[in-house]
Specification:
The complex is a heterodimer of chains A (119) and B (489).
Chain A: E1 3-7, H1 11-23, E2 27-31, H2 34-44, E3 48-52, H3 60-70, E4 78-82, H4 89-96, E5 100-103, H5 108-116
Parallel strand pairs in A: 1-2, 1-3, 3-4, 4-5
Helix pairs in contact in A: 2-3
Chain B: H1 3-45, H2 49-108, E1 112-116, E2 124-127, H3 129-134, H4 140-145, H5 155-168, E3 170-179, E4 185-196, E5 202-211, H6 213-288, H7 296-326, E6 334-338, H8 339-356, E7 360-364, E8 370-374, H9 375-391, E9 397-404, E10 408-415, H10 422-425, H11 449-460, E11 463-469, E12 473-481
Parallel strand pairs in B: 7-9
Antiparallel strand pairs in B: 1-2, 1-5, 3-4, 4-5, 6-8, 9-10, 10-12, 11-12
Classes of the chains: A alpha/beta (119), B alpha+beta (489).
Chain lengths: 119, 489
């Protein structure tokens, strides 16, 4: 079973992501801050990370950078959750080391399709 | 020479000749007396025979000569005198004529002309009728009897006037406050010269006075107006300064409000969207059956919830965009991207909606078309155009065509929808303008879509236009430069 790390501070969004991912048959690891996300990414070596950008403490971009720095071998796909109001969110996310991005709000109908492109 | 002067000359010559004749006759008499005396003496002391001889030889010729000489002398003297007298007369006449001319001039002219003596009081020695009339006196005589100083309103002015006349020798257009006989004010413009004798001593003043009372009064009136105006300007200026201060205060408050507004929008956009995330997300989950089977009714109702939530999301996004555009806070993110990918994505996202209405949705474009622009904003505009086409077309097809031109790319969206009436065309790109079509249910929308699209296209340096025939369909065409260049506004 593939492991997916979700870094998200909002409980509802976390529940939503987890529901979709679990129903599609993935194992989900939950992190509620950037720091926790970095720690779990290094420790658990997930197959994919879903990274919210707006996070308390270090944000998703910073967390992504740290994860990329810690990696010795192959990259873990990191999908950024960007917000509509953020200009150039995609570019910023890609620059920080993300593999792809999904604009919020999550649409359950297309969510898995987007994710599975990177697995 | 006229007849009169000719006669006069004749009289003169005759008179002079007669006069000289008398004088010479007397002289001749005296001379004759001398010869007579000589004769007597000869008669007494000489011989008588020699008397006749003496008369013939001496007196006759002598007398004849003397008389002829007298006559000639008389005529010459007469003529000379006549010429002299005549010339003198002519000079006098010319002088009199000239005097006459100037007298009539000074008498008829409308300017007061005067001559007066020096001294603190001063007396007029000459005034013209205009002067008399100007000051309201009965006669020239009456004026000559008063003092010059009596015509001044304040004695000081007379002193000043005298001082100036003595030091400079003249005044030009000096405005003096004078008094008429009836005591009313007369503003006189006086020009005068100090007339000097051979030794350089001032004899009297010759001058002219003009009545400029009305002019002066008008000037005073004007001055008053001017002062009033200045006062008014001062007052207004201070009022304006006050207003400026208020405005500055208001401006500071406005800036603060603007900052608060931006903060409000930023925070609201986040706060409003977070709950929407869960509404849209969980409706989706339930609709997909992830959390268990649902009935058809539930599906129908939940779909409505989802659609409403999506509409609300669009509304929020549009409002945020409008507020950004209106406060010039749109951040463009320019990068190279493949427009073909973007177009495919747009087509994909409308596939379901088009299928539901049984509309044919086609896309015609080059396989690869790299442009440099703001990808998300370009997508927003095209999404808006296609969304409108789908929304307002009930049967037929929607054609999306992308054409590369020299320096720009043209995206056109053509539909076979309801079309737009001519009178509604100009409302198209206005904010919150919605076009209602009779007999058609009000379509959901914010009334901001095309307004935003136009603003965004403007920002990106492109153009947007619409062509339509009511009842047949519409074509919206938007162009974007292949390479975005910042437009300095």
């Amino acid at each position: 079973m593939k492991k997916i790390l979700v870094v998200e501070d909002n409980e509802i969004n976390m529940y939503l992501s987890c529901s979709i991912l679990k129903s599609s048959g993935y194992e989900v690891i939950e992190a509620r801050s950037g720091e926790e996300g970095v720690e779990l990414a290094i420790k658990e070596k997930p197959d994919l990370i879903i990274m919210d950008i707006q996070l308390p403490g270090i944000d998703g971009l910073e967390a992504t950078k740290r994860i990329r720095e810690s990696e010795a071998d192959g990259e873990i796909p990191i999908i950024a959750l960007t917000s509509y109001v953020m200009a150039g969110g995609k570019k910023k996310a890609l620059k920080a080391g993300c593999t792809g991005y999904i604009e919020k709000p999550i649409n359950p109908e297309t969510f898995m399709g987007e994710i599975e492109k990177y697995l | 020479m006229n007849k009169l002067t000719k006669n006069k000359t004749t009289v003169l010559v005759l008179t002079s000749a007669i006069l000289f004749g008398i004088i010479f006759w007397i002289l001749d008499g005296i001379l004759n007396f001398y010869f007579f005396r000589e004769y007597l003496r000869f008669m007494i002391f000489q011989r008588p025979e020699t008397l006749l001889e003496s008369i013939v030889t001496n007196i006759s010729f002598h007398a004849l000569f003397v008389r002829i000489s007298f006559l000639v002398a008389c005529v010459i003297a007469g003529v000379l005198t006549a010429i002299f007298i005549n010339r003198q007369k002519k000079v006098e006449e010319a002088l009199r004529e000239s005097e006459e001319k100037y007298r009539t001039l000074t008498e008829n002219v409308n300017v007061g002309i005067y001559r007066n003596t020096l001294g603190p009081e001063g007396k007029f020695t000459e005034v013209n009728p205009a002067f008399v009339k100007m000051f309201g006196y009965k006669s020239r005589k009456e004026l000559l009897s008063i003092n010059v100083a009596d015509l001044y309103q304040t004695p000081k002015d007379r002193k000043k006037f005298n001082k100036k006349m003595l030091s400079e020798g003249f005044v030009m257009g000096e405005k003096l406050q004078l008094i008429k006989k009836d005591g009313t004010l007369l503003i006189g413009s006086v020009s005068a010269v100090a007339v000097k004798d051979e030794k350089g001593k001032v004899q009297h003043y010759d001058g002219i006075v003009e009545d400029v009372t009305e002019l002066w009064q008008a000037g005073e009136e004007l001055k008053k107006y001017h002062e009033h105006l200045e006062e008014l300007v001062k007052k207004r200026t201070s009022e304006l300064e006050g207003k400026t201060g208020e405005l500055e205060q208001a401006n500071i408050r406005l800036q603060e409000l603007d900052r608060l507004k931006s903060m409000f929008i930023a925070s609201m956009s986040h706060e409003l969207r977070t709950p929407l995330n869960s509404i849209i997300g969980f409706t989706g989950i339930i609709l997909q059956g992830i959390s268990g089977e649902i009935t058809e009714d539930q599906r129908k109702e939940l779909t409505m919830v989802k659609n409403s939530a999506n509409h609300l999301l669009t509304l929020i996004n549009d409002v945020i965009d409008v507020s950004k555009i209106e406060t010039d806070r749109v951040e463009l993110f320019i990068e190279e991207f493949n427009l073909a990918d973007l177009m495919q994505g747009v087509k994909e996202s409308f596939k379901v909606a088009a299928d539901e209405k049984d509309l044919k949705l086609s896309l015609e474009m080059p396989e690869r078309l790299i442009i440099k622009s703001d990808e998300r904003r370009v997508k927003q505009v095209i999404m808006n155009l296609v969304s409108n086409a789908v929304k307002f077309t009930d049967r037929g097809e929607i054609e999306i065509k992308v054409r590369k031109e020299d320096k720009r790319v043209e995206v056109s969206v053509t539909d076979t929808g309801i079309g737009i009436k001519k009178e509604d065309m100009k409302k198209l790109f206005k904010q919150f303008s919605r076009i209602y079509v009779e007999g058609r249910p009000v379509t959901e929308g914010t009334g901001l879509g095309l307004y935003l699209s136009k603003k965004i296209v403007d920002l990106l340096g492109g153009q947007i236009k619409a062509e339509s025939e009511f009842g047949k369909g519409s074509m919206f065409t938007s162009t974007f430069p292949l390479e975005y260049r910042e437009v300095k506004v």
